[in-house]
Description:
With 292 residues, chain A is of the alpha/beta class. Chain A has helices at residues 94-100, 141-149, 172-179, 226-238, 271-274, 280-283; strands at residues 22-31, 36-41, 60-65, 69-74, 85-90, 107-114, 127-133, 157-163, 184-190, 200-201, 218-223, 246-249, 265-266, 269-270, 277-279.
Amino acid sequence: MTTxxxxxxxxxxxxxxPMTPLxxxxxxxxxxTHDTYTLTLExxxxxxxxxxxxxxxxxxSMLYDYGVGELPISISGDPERxxxxxxxxxxxxPVTTSLVTRAPGDAIGVRGPFGTPWPMTEARGKSVLIVAGxxxxxxxRPAIYHILRHRGDYNRLVILYGARSPxxxxxxxxxxxxxxxxxxxxxxxxxxxxxxxxxxxGVVTTLFKSIRAQPAETxxxxxxxxxxxxxxLRELQIRGLPKNQIFLSMERNMKCAAGFCGHCQLGPFxxxxxxxxxSCAAIEPWMDLYEA
Amino acid sequence: MNSIQVQxxxxxxxxxxxxxxxxxxxxxxxxxxxxxxxxxxxxxxxDPSSFFYLIQSGHVALEVRAPGHILRIxxxxxxxxxxxxxxxxxxxxxxxxxxxxxxxxxxxxxxQIIARCEADPAFGFRVLRRxxxxxxxxxxxxxxxMLDVYATRGGGGL
Lengths: 292, 158
């Protein structure tokens, strides 16, 4: 457990802009799984801070743990609840571990929102297939919230979620509840299960055969480990989904989030500003490029 | 279920999609309906590979028995096949198959189906192509599983 000096929410930065983190007060830290937590923050009270909570599904913020470091974190909350900023974080490194051990009342620096959103407007009138793996469900949750709030604008909603094991399943209660809604399928699979696990076992692509949706009338939104997305992409293409209806959220080493530093370059794109959400048609030629 | 009903049910099973009516009729003559209870073990690792199943309803877990625990590595459900190794008469079952809920299936005696494939190689080719497709799907899924794609590696961003 990391111990922290409490960071006050004041002072307000002298200047603001895309590179200046604004302090936001941490409201709560909720444990989701053994290593993943959801942090809820108040939007920064400094001038311009209200913009931090005006995000579109799929966008991310840069979260700065004062004195520790800064990371890009997808927004996992409801885009129509601007009174709070919600982030789901897997604790795997020094910055994420420090962030998830912060206490309510602490200040966390926020920049953003940044990046391209999921194609919620283009997908209107179509079915939406969500394919998520591991923590990749977090950036897709705002898209699910959006569809559920505007249910009449979309046809079927199919959520396929893969996790490593039953104890790694994120948003378990919500996944179950979504599956009970009309015109909604929510299927969970784990790579490995014990005898107490009664659900599906197998990689996420093994769920594709259970989908009830017409490929030509479906938009697919994918987020998860890149290798998982490559396999999922192959399955979607076998099933006839057009490339311009498949969208992926890519992860690269983002530092500035504003296209200045070039750390996140992927082919002709900077993932921070041209992504993280790309259409398959645009990104497919670059998907086999590995980050050094 | 009479023979016409068996043939009709087999014709709708995804594993047999695209086979000729004559092929389905041949398979129907070999099929018999079986039911298993929840938690029933259909076969254990090391058992002779005698039966091949086409699942109509319910889910079956494939498990590996290891010292001190059982690892569930795959689930197979309605519309899928179970026990493809029965096409290889000399190979014993590699996994344990346990019903997660009541299961209904069509069973085929492996020796009989092999004999029919050998007697009619064109029929055998069409059936084995489907078996091979299933094996290829399972191999692909197993390779992806082995990659352990959700394991912790990075710094946790996004």
